[in-house]
Amino acid sequence: MNWNTHLKAQSTRATQLYQNLRKIARKSWGVPLNHRRTFYKTVIERVLAHGAVDWCLELTVRIARKLSTIQRPFLLAISISGAYRTTSTAALQVILGIPPLHLQLQREARGTALFRLRLPLSTNVSDIDPSEIEEKATGWSAHPSEHLSPTQISKDDGGNINTGLRIYTDGSKTEKGVGAAFCVLTDINITHRWSTRLSLRNTVFQAEILALLKAVEHAVTLPTQQLTILVENQASINSAANPKSHNSNAWKIFKLLHRHPHIRVSWIKAHSGYIGNEEG
């Protein structure tokens, strides 16, 4: 399939849109220039992007040239200086800060294939395995009436907490790799450890939120008692305490904390000499 029919139809639609734009926007009158740019990005470009994941993943030179031809009249219509019709397309793209249409559509197509459809891309484009990509929670992550007890989350330094069971979490990223871990401390004795190595593509936040999730899951299996999870990353605490978070791990943490109000989460200052924090 060479997509000739589709490209011809897209060209026809683009011509109609351009003619409609010309009725309300000329060099010296009509729709303001900033509104023309918005119109191009939110309407025209969206129309042209229809089905791009099927025909823009691996672009040919012919398709790229055709898209450039389609884009050019719109660049002239929204150009700030009322550029001459002989101005090159590349110059218009630089002046307006609008990327070439074929690159824009290809970027969106690859993003859709990888992050939404979970389709692997060719190895010369990306070696990311779709199964490694973090999934986002969709819909209502929690009922509007659900919320955590005010005593469950603390942003004050919890390093001085020395009563009850304490679980210290940690996530880090160095040139050697990315890791997440937690340890359980009773008085001064470490009774349990957990750690895992993550991909180099993972961020510190992803490591921290994973360590917090595993710590909460472990806490749930323990007998009900006074228990505090000490976390050095405030971003992961904020995400876990947010009932509308779209992070799937944060959503799981929120649900577990909501069902087990005896589990407290407190921030702890990093690298301050606390035994559990250094061990974690």
From TrEMBL:
InterPro entries linked: RNaseH-like_sf, RNaseH_domain, RNaseH_sf
Chain ranges of the RNase H type-1 domain: 161-280
Pfam families, per database record: RNase_H (PF00075)
GO terms of molecular function: nucleic acid binding; RNA-DNA hybrid ribonuclease activity
Signal peptide: none
Database matches in CDD domains: Rnase_HI_RT_non_LTR
SUPFAM superfamilies in the cross-refs: Ribonuclease H-like
Protein name as catalogued: RNase H type-1 domain-containing protein
Organism of derivation: Araneus ventricosus (Orbweaver spider)
Phylogenetic classification of the source organism: Eukaryota, Metazoa, Ecdysozoa, Arthropoda, Chelicerata
